[in-house]
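User: Okay, second chain of the day. Same drill as before: sequence in, structure tokens out.
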Amino acid sequence: MRRATLFVLTVVASFVPCASALADGYRPESPLEQDFLEQFDYAETAVLTTVFRGPGGVDYSTTSRQRIVDYLNAQSLTKARATDVEPRLETPVRQPQFKLFMDSLGKIGKQVAATDIGADYAMVLEVVFPPVMGDRIAVFGIHVFILTPDGENAFSFLLNSHHASFRSAGLSSSDTSLQGRKELVLKSTTVALKVLEEQVSRARECVPRPGIAFATTGGIGTIADFESELPVSTDGDGVEIGFSTFNGSESRAWMSITDDHPARPFEQPDNHVLQIDVDVNSWAGILHRFEGEAQDEWVAYDLRGARELSFWLYGNDSGTSLAFDVLDNRRGCSISDDAERYRYQFVDDFSGWKLISIPFEVMSRADVGNDAPSDGFGLASVNGWGLGILKTFGSKTYYIDDVQVRYAPILETTPAGELRDQYVWCPINELPMFGGFNKTAWQLEADEKFIQMAVSGFDGDRVAAAEKFAQMGWNFYQRDDNSKAIKRFNQAWLLDARNQHALWGFAVISVERGKIDDAVRFYEMAMAIRPGPEKLVEEYEELRRLLP
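Assistant: Same drill. Structure tokens below.
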């Protein structure tokens, strides 16, 4: 079923910076944009009556509405028809343009949600006039809103005097009467429609390209083995690609390839590794933005199907916090680093080499203030990786080697023995039921020590101890700390495999990670323990309704 949507154009009177270098106008991000781009040209669009407002009040224009209908049909942008619905808005108050834009979006959205548009999309033009200056009146900006039938933004943009199409239109007049304002509304309509066509065209051109196929051998793909010179370059927009460092205040990071390093287990003769020297009072680290063969393009790899990312790391047992990032899904036509970061944080609490393997499902989105999209960790277009390091309290040296993606979990493919038992480090305590993996000897020993500690405060009662740890899990979950929550749910399950709250916790976190089949299984296991509670059953039934 196609999603019915409201399209709103608004012309307003104050300034908002232009954030788009790709097409005239500023278009805020919308998670519904792709649906709109795929549907608009064959959808039916109901055009609402144009509204314009200023200090003198609110008025409407059916002439502008008809011009919109005619243009959309003539350009085959969509199948348009007029509707008599009039947006209900008040006389505008003095405020920043973007605030006014969002205010209109919300108010019109509520009206649309309460109205049966009877089409796949609806469109309305709004023009807002400022006070008359001297003997002239002028329009100072244009907005475009696209809303779903329930009032959500799908494709919205604004224009103002900072955009060429707006400036060249000459949206001012010496006729300050109602008729003069109506004429400016019609000119604004023409400007808005032309920019709409350009915005749709550019947005379709800039759909992110899928990543290039990634070569694997035996279910493992090598991203970096450091056996050749580090690629260091920039792309055509001046964005650093290949390897680079970053740092905060009073912090430094240096990197180099070396064969003079502490011997790594199972390495080949003359093996080279990446040496990272840091002195960090805030934060620092390295980035590897995937470079094309000619080292003049930032590329992405299609890693769909991969389960984990692994690397050898030489630790200092310093207690320093480390963060491993995967860079995912830059915007199409981007001219900056706006790739999403998905992160796993851990602690340098070991000495010597460890083979670190991080399941993608335990990584969570990190907002680094780079205006990245927020559309999930899809792995279809992975742009790079990075290692961040927080306070080191002096100089430290880390070594890293053989960054790889794995299409089967390392604990399934590495047999018990020296490598697995002594060197493999994988955060299975952040996977429900520890991922179902056979644990190493040291992991089993750690489990026994935990159980002894946990029951000591409950007179040896594992069931009571489990309930306590499950409640701790829910407390962390309510604080949006899923990492600690899942650890506590695992501890509760380890104490008592029939703890309903632990199984319930596995279910809700699986839903958030997109593991729907796993979530259904955990919900059913939780309900099999005993009837209810009502909320558990409601969540399960709601999830089942969403399944095909």
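The radius of gyration is 29 Å.

User: Thanks, on to the next one.
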